[in-house]
Amino acid sequence: MNRGSSGKRGADTAAAGHGRSRAAGKRVLTAAGALLALAALQGIQGGQAVADGATPTTGPGTPATWQPQGTVLAGAATTADAPAMKPGVTYRDTIKVGETRIYGITLDAKSSAYASAFALPPPGGRVAYGDGIELKLEGADGDDCDSVDAHFQDDGAVRPVGSAVARLIGVDSSCQEANQYTLSVHRTSDGASDPGAWPLELRYVLEPALKSGAAAGHAPEGAGTASPTPLTSGTPQQATGGTSFESAAPVKTGIWKDKVLPGETRFYKVPVDWGQQATVFSDFSSAQVTDSSAYIGSGVRLAAYSPVRELIDDQEHSYAGTPASVHEQLAPVSYANRAADDTEVSRVRYAGWYYFAVTVHPDVAKAVSGPVPVTLRVDVTGDAQPAPAYAGDPKAAGIGVDAHDVSSADGKPQSASSSAGSTSAKRFLGFAALGAGTVLLLALAVWTVTARRRAAPQDTVTQQLPPQSSGFGPPPSW
Predict the structure, then answer these.
(1) Could you tell me which residues are beta bridge partners of residue 162?
(2) Are the CB atoms for 114 and 396 separated by under 8 Å?
């Protein structure tokens, strides 16, 4: 009897210990799964913090630069070998001195098309006034649909340089048919400039036509004739400009402060709806002067670009450490602007994000120490008007903005498109870690039940286990 009682107590103690061991094992595995998930998910946040920043990791005082993104696409030397570009896809290539790179574009007879190219010479390189790239869009029969030159316009002014060419339906008389077209990019160079290849970033987008019978409207008269007045009311907010169109910091009506190093170009984007007009003043404040005799004629610059990366206009001003200001006032946004003779008006032909690039000439470093404080005075006026009746969705071309775009414009740099894939992968790993913890717990439960069944006395009726939940499958295959 005593032996039986002692045995029962021993069995109870062993069972209790086994239960505690199982509970501890579950807690360890649960904690392990949670830690795996937490580590992966923290990796998302940490990775996003790096990916979302416009400034890559550089040393103090090192200018941040635009790193080309997209799929590698080697341009051809002839139209016969031109590789095909797809709408809405960003590509990257390189171009040598005097070289022409040619790319193929297939267009229908309904959509307007816009093809952009930007050269990204490395910081510290030598460039001259006439250096740059020349873009041309041609039809299969050699018709010149559109062409534009993008040059530095100043010696030593290393910065991203480029624009876009267009095929407009219903405006031009040529290049209207469905056919094969080519985008050619030619690099011009001064004999004293760096001979190294420049990275290129290219992209083309399609704008759908209007529905049959839809009116294009009329362009506003007298747009931009009055001298603009800078916005002076409001509490200044902090902005961190991006290094490219992809990472441009969204800003809305208000006063925004940033700092730009000599040799840097910072990008900002402003949501402008149909019928609205954007005015941006860029005030370059005083900085610590190290050489009062230095003079940089094109020390600071402000450039305005359309939603399809087409250069609208740019302004420059001398700078040597004393305050300077430049501004851009765009025409009110109207679909009918595309028929205007003035290119600065015709390029403001759709609602969307308008880009403003602020550049400080590399030679400013000879006159001042450190970054130049910049104040952007952004003013978007006018009531938003209804969008034209497009036959398709214009969002694929970046056309149109909404209330969310305006409310979320907080001056923070945007993530580069290349970060999306890595973020998704990290998020998958985070949830996979949670799944792994769950699978481990399931395996432990099965092992525990099996062990109990094996340890049960022969004359004991074993309770049938409930069926396994169908919500769990076999462990994932890694």
Answers:
(1) 118
(2) no
In total, the chain counts a number of residues equal to 478
Question: At 19, phi and psi to the nearest 5?
Answer: -65, -45
356 in Cβ contact with 300 (< 8 Å) = no
Tell me the average pLDDT of the chain. 81
Q: Tokens for 174?
A: 């040529």
Q: Cβ distance 182 to 165 under 8 Å?
A: no
Alpha-carbon separation of residue 443 from 229, 353, 381, 440, 454 (angstroms): 71, 53, 64, 5, 17
Instruction: Give me the mean pLDDT over the 100-111 stretch.
Output: 97
Give phi and psi for 422, each to the nearest 5: -70, -35
Q: How far apart are the first and last CA of the chain?
A: 56
What amino acid occupies position 390? Y
What values do phi and psi take at 351, rounded to 5? -75, 155
Residue 196, CA distances (Å) to 107, 124, 455 in order = 34, 12, 77
- Taking a C-beta distance cutoff of 8 angstroms, is the pair 379, 279 a contact? yes
Dihedral pair phi/psi, residue 278, rounded to 5°: -110, 135
- CATH level 3 topology of 73-207: Jelly Rolls (2.60.120)
Q: What share of the chain is helix, strand, coil (3-state, %, to 5)?
A: 25, 30, 45
- CA-based R_g, the chain, Å: 31
CATH of 229-414, one of 2.60.120.380, 1.20.1260.10, 1.10.10.10, 3.40.50.2300: 2.60.120.380
Distance CA 254, CA 399 (A): 23
| Distance in angstroms (rounded) separating the CA atoms of residues 243 and 357 | 9
Cα(149)–Cα(117) distance, integer angstroms: 11
Tell me how far apart the alpha carbons of residues 171 and 122 are, in angstroms, rounded to a whole number.
Answer: 38
User: Mind listing the pLDDT tens digit for each residue in 27-71?
Assistant: 443 444 444 333 433 443 333 333 333 444 344 578 999 999 999
State how far the Cα of 82 lies from the Cα of 184, in Å rounded to an integer: 9
pLDDT over 70, % of the chain: 73
Task: Write out pLDDT tens, residues 73-93.
Answer: 999 999 999 999 999 999 999
Q: What is the pLDDT of residue 124?
A: 87
Rounded to whole angstroms, how far apart are CA atoms 292 and 286? Answer: 13
How many C-alpha atoms does 452 have within 13 Å on its Cβ side?
Answer: 16
Mean pLDDT on 257-273:
98
